[in-house]
């Protein structure tokens, strides 16, 4: 039987990690590799909404849970995860070794650096896949190196190849290290063994983070930018050729969203979403509802089922016609819709890249971790959005929300931001097109692996 170059891609079971790693897997498969995306049993029950993905095999290995665990607890339980999953990964590799498709390489989620040790134990090379920006990764690298001392007190932090950052531009657990120890430990762990990896894959693209990518290369890091990791159909509109999208952990309300958007004028809708993990306080939720309502714009708001109890009574009835609230949507399809005027976002890295790649300007409302740095870049480096200012309580008020929405969707600066967004969209497409910087990196990786 024919033996193909088999690559294992191991992803942490969160939506913001699965999405880019699945898209990367598909790109690897399109270059001729056999690819298995490996995730873990926590999401066994929620993963049923798989659409397509036929070019990639999906494998679930045990993390000790049978699919009934709250996803939001995962980060807090990373240590337990490490013990169990390194064992089940080892067993899976052993099983494959005696099959017709022994693995040749392991690409592992950057939050699972120990996966490299498992790969090496079986004589395999490996490479971490970063689902965060190059800029944020460099900040964590400097943390590990001790160039950044904790707690960060400011007023600004200067690091090579990055703009000056204030405390508001850096993960809050660096200015307040005791606020969330698991994340601080994780950030320190990321760079524990990275130079033993064959490559470093980043879900980003050259033009977007040119200075920082060049700095990494100058340090002899084997970096390969391979993004934006979104399906080609959204970059070049060849919809019929690429119907596959992905692996949803929440059930998207596709028809309701798209049919509703179809009835709205071009650039008239604010799309609002805070990703798969962020949870707003009750008070913040109230301000947001009023801010959206007072903006007088149409809005499509994603409120996950676990968050819906925070919506004010009667809100849905009062805003019927003006707004649509659903628990999950096909985000790429929504962002690509002509009715969308701006994206009010928590600035998760995938949401940021998706908006940039689809030419949608943003209202940035970052919540935690890498999102604060992403917001800094959205506003000051890529110039595709405004950032909501928080009041002395740390709340984004309804007045501020309304002001920012109006500025991006209707104001003069909004037009400028839309123009910049279109430019980023073109550059994103160029990177992924045949012969583009990311496409070449993927091709080069597979070609070298085949020859090795
Ligand atoms: C997290 C972090 O925030 C991010 O910065 C990190 O580096 C990866 O994981 P999350 O908070 O969920 O992820 O946000 P984001 O990175 O934006 O990922 C959310 C994904 O879910 C996006 O790919 C988005 O398209 C998708 N999504 C979101 C939907 O498909 N439908 C929705 O309704 C909302």
Tell me the Rg in angstroms: 21 Å
**Shape category:** globular
Quickly give the structural class. Answer: alpha/beta
Number of strands: 17
Tell me what portion of residues adopts beta-strand conformation: 15-25%
Count of separate DSSP helical elements: 17
Into which percent range does the helicity of residues fall?
A: 40-55%
- What average pLDDT do the residues reach? 91
Q: Tell me about the biggest sheet?
A: 7 strands, parallel
Distance between the termini: 20 Å
Bound molecules: uridine-5'-diphosphate-xylopyranose
Which regions contain 5 or more consecutive residues with pLDDT less than 50?
Answer: none
What spatial order of strands do you see in the largest sheet?
Answer: 4-2-1-5-6-9-10
Index terms:
452 residues, alpha/beta, seven-stranded parallel beta sheet, binds uridine-5'-diphosphate-xylopyranose
Task: Summarize the SSE layout with pairings.
Layout lengths: L5 E5 L4 H16 L3 E7 L8 E2 L6 E5 L16 H20 L5 E7 L5 H7 L3 E6 L3 H12 L10 E2 L7 E2 L5 H4 L5 H9 L10 E3 L7 H9 L4 E3 L6 H5 L10 E2 L5 H9 L6 E5 L8 H13 L3 E5 L12 H4 L4 E4 L4 H5 L4 E6 L3 H9 L4 E3 L6 H11 L3 E3 L10 H12 L2 H21 L4 H15 L1
Parallel strand pairs: 1-2, 1-5, 2-4, 5-6, 6-9, 9-10, 12-13, 12-15, 13-14, 15-16, 16-17
Antiparallel strand pairs: 3-11, 7-8
Helix pairs in contact: 10-15, 15-16
The protein binds uridine-5'-diphosphate-xylopyranose.
The site of uridine-5'-diphosphate-xylopyranose has 24 residues, from helix 1, helix 12 and helix 13.
